[in-house]
TrEMBL record:
GO MF term set: oxidoreductase activity
Alphabetical list of Pfam families matching this protein: FMN_red
Protein name, per record: Flavodoxin family protein
Keywords: Flavoprotein, FMN
Top-level taxon of origin: Archaea
Length: 182
């Protein structure tokens, strides 16, 4: 059992990273092997819409760090995508990752069944302010073939580490982690 986390915030030690780490902690407590990647440190190009993937069993023609990530996802049972809310949406780093998941879409037999969880940190203190966007993002990941088992949102985060004071959010994170590992 392996669970991997992808962090779409450029801030190391930021709220997104803390929540993804906490989910991984929950998964690890349930016996999963875990690994975390910061998307900001990886070279991930935008999808080129070349459609190479659709006639080559989900293989992406773009040779960058996403190749390593495809392999990680293939070898994992679940992954977490964490992102700060930037301009009402996920960060650019998280969006590049998401678009590139178009390649393996439809080739689940080859890539194996992988579930997922989504994590968002937002400055707005109203937790419902991006509900519609977050629900549609959840649908995107379900459609891509990665059944979303949990969504974690922390609202009212400004400085890196604000979420550390939120015991309810951290508790929910560990519960999602346990669920991903089972
Ligand atoms: C470029 C940029 C755009 C942002 N846009 C929004 C936004 O639209 N809505 C919001 O609630 N917070 C917004 N924020 C605040 C972040 O979502 C918030 O501070 C979050 O905790 C950052 O996560 P991190 O600590 O993991 O980097 C924005 C921050 C930045 C830097």
């Amino acid at each position: 059992m392996k669970v991997v986390g992808f962090v779409g915030s450029p801030r190391e030690g930021g709220n997104t990273e803390i929540m993804v780490e906490e989910i991984l902690k929950g998964a690890s407590m349930s016996g999963a092997e875990t690994e975390i990647f910061n998307l900001n440190k990886l070279n991930i190009k935008p999808c080129q819409a070349c459609m190479h993937c659709k006639s080559n069993e989900g293989e992406c023609a773009t040779d960058d760090d996403m190749q390593k990530i495809y392999k990680e996802i293939m070898e994992s049972d679940a992954f977490i995508l964490g992102s700060p809310i930037y301009m009402w949406q996920m960060s650019a780093q998280a969006k590049l990752f998401t678009d590139r998941l178009y390649a393996p879409m439809g080739f689940e037999e080859k890539f194996g069944k992988t579930s997922s969880a989504l994590v968002f940190s937002q400055g707005n203190p109203d937790i419902d302010s991006f509900e519609e966007y977050i629900n549609s993002t959840k649908e995107v990941f379900n459609l891509l073939g990665y059944t979303v088992k949990g969504v974690l949102i922390s609202a009212g985060d400004q400085s890196p580490g604000d979420v550390k004071n939120k015991d309810d959010v951290l508790k929910k994170a560990r519960e999602i982690g346990k669920d991903l590992a089972n």
